[in-house]
Amino acid sequence: MEYQLPRLTKMWTHLERQSGGQVKGMGEKQIEVDKRILRTQIGVLKKELETVRKHRKQYRNRRTAVPVPVISLVGYTNAGKSTLLNQLTGANVLAEDQLFATLDPTTRRVQMKNGKEFLLTDTVGFIQKLPTTLVAAFRATLEEISESSLLVHVVDISHPLADQQIEAVEKVLSELDVSAIPKLIVWNKVDKASNPNEIKLEAAKRDDVVCISALTGEGLDDFCSAIQEKLKDIMVWIEALVPFDKGELLNTIHKVGMVEKTEYTEHGTMIKAHVPLRFAQLLTPFRQLSKSAAPV
Ligand SMILES: Nc1nc2c(ncn2[C@@H]2O[C@H](COP(=O)(O)OP(=O)(O)OP(=O)(O)O)[C@@H](O)[C@H]2O)c(=O)[nH]1
Ligand SMILES: [Mg+2]
Predict the structure, then answer these.
(1) Which of 83, 94, 165, 224 is surrounded by the fewest CB atoms within 10 Å?
(2) Of all helices (H) and strands (E), which one includes residue 260?
(3) Where is the Hflx-type G domain (predicted)?
């Protein structure tokens, strides 16, 4: 609408009819009436967007209380982000959500085969030359991106303009100032590509690229392992002695972290693991000073 406002000709007469004819006969030219109606609608939509932003902010605040990593799917429109989300959650997600029963419809909990969990957010698709006014309209989702632990850039590798689309997405990401967030690149729709073997070979050469088909499910196990590796990179190493009466902490460590070693001592469970930073802070009272370094 903001795009149309300065370009208005008489294309909005139906809106005048919808407003019940009240705007007629006020001495305004048709075009001004049209503009006024459009501005009112823009105002209403902006208010609605603000409500959406506030809601998502509340969800995020609630979520940060729980140490489950949040991963956002980003990418060019039609790259297959939503398909990937559905495929992953359809195949692995727990039917009953305990903690996030009221999650926004685009965020889903994913449980991998090894029992680890993360939250996956589907975001709005990017397009080339995204007008700044539109960037503002997408803010609710885009803010979500900036608070993720990891970004998954989904690419339609079968598309003849895949390179330009990657570039366009990178450009929006740099405008959003999220370059510091680790990223995994996913070459999707490999089933549709004319040269799938070549693409797979190329992807195998690069350690930040995973080749998949969100549609057929091909490569999804590799995708999950790659996610695990990336998440591990952003976790911190802890060695903690968890008292026996804090059993729930141990469960959480197993769920959100990567346990390297568990030992039962007379004072409690000695655990060595990679865990999300926020969770490591929760464990501070039980952490041990140790001379051994994290395994590489
Ligand atoms: N052949 C093939 N088609 C796919 C694959 N993944 C997605 N598609 C199709 O691509 C189209 C777009 O998929 P979406 O998941 O809606 O894409 P999106 O990235 O969410 O798009 P936006 O929401 O517009 O950003 C759909 O028709 C999907 O069925 C794939 O791996 N192979
Ligand atoms: Mg989508």
Answers:
(1) 94
(2) strand 258-265
(3) 69-235
CA distance 150 to 141: 15
Q: DSSP readout, 197-222?
A: HHHHHHHHH-TTEEE--TTT-TTHHH
Q: Please state the length of the chain.
A: 296
Asked whether residue 36 falls in the same domain as residue 156, the answer is no
pLDDT at 96 over 50: no
Is there a single domain that holds both residue 73 and residue 218? yes
Query: For the chain, what is the domain count?
Result: 3
| Å from CA of 78 to ligand 1 middle | 5
Query: Does one domain contain both 33 and 111?
Result: no
Q: How far is the CA of 188 from the centre of ligand 1 (A)?
A: 9
For ligand 2, a single-atom ion, the residues with CB < 5 A are: 81-82
pLDDT of residue 58: 75
Q: Mind listing the pLDDT tens digit for each residue in 159-216? A: 999 999 999 899 888 877 888 889 999 999 999 999 999 999 999 999 899 999 999 9
CA–CA separation, 128 and 131 (whole Å) = 9
Same structural domain, 102 and 213: yes
Q: Which residues of 257-273 are buried (b: 16+ CB within 10 A; e: fewer)?
A: bbeeeeeeeeebbbbbb
Establish if 296 belongs to a structural domain: no
Question: Ligand 1 pocket: which residues have CB below 6 Å?
Answer: 75, 77-83, 125, 188-189, 191-192, 213-215
Ligand 1 atom 32, closest CA: 189
CA–CA dist 122, 257 (Å, integer): 23
Which of the ligands is closest to the CA of residue 79? 1
234-243: burial string, b at 16+ Cβ within 10 Å, e else? ebbbbbbbbe
**What's the start-to-end Cα distance of the chain, in Å?**
53
Note down the domain range covering 149: 67-233
Could you give the maximum distance between any two Cα atoms of the chain, in Å? 88
Q: Would you say residue 60 has pLDDT above 90? A: no
